From TrEMBL:
Protein's name in the database: ABC transmembrane type-1 domain-containing protein
Transmembrane segments: 29-52, 159-180, 242-262
Signal sequence annotation: none
InterPro entries named among the record's database cross-references: ABC1_TM_dom, ABC1_TM_sf, Type_1_exporter
Domain called ABC transmembrane type-1: residue spans: 157-263
GO cellular component annotations of the record: mitochondrial inner membrane
Entry keywords, A to Z: Membrane, Repeat, Transmembrane, Transmembrane helix, Transport
Gene Ontology BP terms: oligopeptide export from mitochondrion
PANTHER family given in the database record: ATP-BINDING CASSETTE TRANSPORTER, ATP-DEPENDENT PERMEASE MDL1, MITOCHONDRIAL
Main location: membrane
Organism: Cryptomonas curvata
Amino acid sequence: RERGGGGGGGGGQGYARRAIGMNRPELPWAGLGLVGALMNGALFPVLATLLVEMLAAYFLCIAAPVDPAALGFPPVPWIHANATLTQTFYDSPTACAAPYRGVDCVWTAPGRWLAGGDACDGAPAVCVDFYPPGGSVKLYQDPELCYSSMRATVRDYSLGFLGLAIGAFIANFAQLYSFGRMGEFLTMRLRDLTFGAILRQDIGFFDLQENSVGALTTKLAKDASLVEGAVGTTLGLLIQNLTLMVISLVIAFIRGWMLTLIC
C-alpha cells in the first residue's frame, strides 16, 4: 500500500499542505481566484449600503410647513411668503451645501440686512441650522429644484447598482473558474497517482475483499473529489466569507458602533 506522511505538520494539516503543493503549477490562478473571492466578499456589504442610501434618497425632499420662529431667526424673506417649503435634512450644519447659509442672511432690523442679504433674498436655496442646534435643513424657494436633485441622486445610485452587478459577474467568474480549474487539475493528479499505486500492488492485494474492483474504482472516483472539495472551492468560500464578515463589521462600526456592540 502507498502511505503518505504528514510533511512534518501532522494529520490533516500535512495532507492539506501536500494537496496545495500539488496545485503549485496553478498558483497564478490562485491569485486571480483570491481577487475574485475578495470582491465577492465585499459585494453584499456594498449592496446593503447602496440599498440604504437609495431608500434614504427618496426622503431627501419633504414638503412640510416651516415656522421661521422655530429656526431661531427669520433668515430669508421668501420663507414668510411660502407656507410650505421643500426640506433636505442633514446630520451636521457643515454638511448642508447651498449658495448661502442662513447665518449670512440674518437681518438686524426690518428692511436692513447684513452683507449678502440681497443675494440671499434671490437665492434658490439656503441652509439654516436647526433650533436648538443639532443639524441643518436646506430650504428651497422652488420645490422642483430639490426634486431634480433627488432624481439625480437616485440616478447615481441606480448606476451604482448596475456597476455592482457587473462587478459581481466578474468576481464570481474569477473565483469559480480559478478555484474550479485548480480543483480539476488537483483531482486529475490525485487520480493519476491513485491509479498508478493500484497498478503497482501485488496480486494478493486484489484478493482481499475490501480491494475488489468495485471498491477500488469507487475510491478512484470519490476520494480525489473529496480532497479537491476540501482545498479547492472551499478555500475560495472561506476567503469570501471572511471578507464579508470583516467589511460588514467595519461598515457597522462606522455607521453606529454602539448599536453594533449591542447586536
